[in-house]
Amino acid sequence: MSTRTATAGDRVLTKVAVRIMPFLALLYFVNYLDRVNIGFAGPNGLNKELGLSATAFGFASGIFFLGYLILEVPSNLALHRFGARRWLARIMLTWGIVATVLAFVPNATTLVVLRFLLGVAEAGFFPGIILYLTYWFPAAQRAKAVALFMAAIPVSSALGSTISSLLIVHGHGIFGLSGWRFMFLVEGVPAMLLAFVTWFYLTDRPEKAKWLTEDERQWLAGELDREHRATESEFHWPLRKALTHPRILALAFVYFAIAYGLYALGFFLPTIIAGFGAEFGTKLSVIQSGLVTAVPYVIAALVMVFWARHGDRTGERKWHVALPMLIGGVAIPIALYLGNPYAAMAAVTICAVGVCCALPTFWALPSNFLAGAAAAGGIALINSLGNISGFAAPYITGWLRDLTGSQRTGLWVVGVCMVAGAVVALALGARPRKSLAPDGNR
């Protein structure tokens, strides 16, 4: 590609990024906050009011992901068929309704049912966005695009911890609701409102983007079409193979390991910080705890984007996934063995950085060899199987907390899981060997 063409292409991709990335990040901010805000509700009234043990709280937190698992693949195939604009708007409307109803949950059983239905409603959102980004960004720029989108995770955890804490404290008694109920109510409404914005704002494909010039549409559509055809020609992965191949299952395990660390932190970090009072004599208000919870994620957001850009610039993928997993996996079990809260938070921060840095480059791996319906199904399957960790992490962590009386055993499981995932990522490499058979089955 000539320098002039490359410069023109960079301008088009910058224009695309400015148009869609802030909006997608906003959607994921709201999505992730609605998914994990139960972590703030638990130690701030929900567990006491509904009579939940740590195991029961972990089960209610994690049951979301079983509902998510059931409809993940068909939801992503529907997005591929009907278009991202319509399907994402539908997902957001239904999840917003369920998230809002959580404010009025009367007992533990209803909480479990609604958390399950929240997972059903949200199924397909995250892999749908990952698939959508393959419609707009060539592979060489994809990890950076995914990082900009997924920066919403640490931002949501950072801002969300503060926002949720403020809503719990200052919302107590409004409409006769407990603070945690008021938080669920306020944080569920934006998803419903953004569903209508999504319907009118998003564009399904570059060919339909009226906000690009004709030349820009033709260049981007042509570039992505050439890449799509080259991928299909080289690897020949049909949908059936993408749903059954051992490589997809191995990638799902790697993602399981990354997400295990993410959700163990997301659901239990507020509880861990609340426990600093008993362990270290540290006294924090609800708002102070929220601000402390934000620190690891603020740092992770900054390092995450830098790491993904470095991966795109060098073209190296497997170590950009495995190395942060190794560092994070070693750091997390150390956190609660340290002698003061500052050292413990430093170790937690290193783990958060490792988890967040591994995520965007990981999602560049399946799109290296999947395209079309195979990409829709394969990405969704990896995400759905990997997100079993969303059930396993809070449930196992809570169960081990009840069994041993300490968070330490659960965090050792997190560390071992992340290190094992890193080893598998290194063994897989960035791309499969080129298929030799005409139908792509070896």
Describe the structure.
It is found in: Cell membrane. Keywords: Membrane, Transmembrane, Transmembrane helix, Transport. The chain has 442 residues and is mainly α. The chain has a single domain, classed as MFS general substrate transporter like domains (Growth Hormone, Chain: A). It has helices at residues 3-36, 38-41, 46-50, 54-62, 64-82, 84-101, 108-122, 125-134, 142-150, 152-170, 179-201, 214-235, 239-244, 246-274, 276-280, 286-314, 318-334, 341-362, 372-386, 388-404, 408-428. Helix 8 packs antiparallel against helix 19, helix 14 (246-274) runs antiparallel to helix 18 (341-362) and helix 14 (246-274) packs across helix 19 (372-386). The radius of gyration is 21 Å and the shape is globular. Mean pLDDT is 81; it is low at 435-442.
Describe the structure concisely for a colleague.
With 442 residues, the protein is an all-alpha fold.
Q: How is the secondary structure organized here?
A:
Layout: H1 3-36, H2 38-41, H3 46-50, H4 54-62, H5 64-82, H6 84-101, H7 108-122, H8 125-134, H9 142-150, H10 152-170, H11 179-201, H12 214-235, H13 239-244, H14 246-274, H15 276-280, H16 286-314, H17 318-334, H18 341-362, H19 372-386, H20 388-404, H21 408-428
Helix pairs in contact: 1-9, 1-10, 1-11, 4-7, 4-20, 5-6, 5-7, 5-8, 5-19, 5-20, 6-7, 6-8, 6-11, 8-19, 9-16, 9-18, 10-11, 10-16, 14-16, 14-18, 14-19, 14-20, 14-21, 16-18, 17-18, 17-21, 20-21
List keywords for this structure.
442 residues; mainly alpha; Growth Hormone, Chain: A; 21 helices; globular; transmembrane helix; transmembrane transporter activity
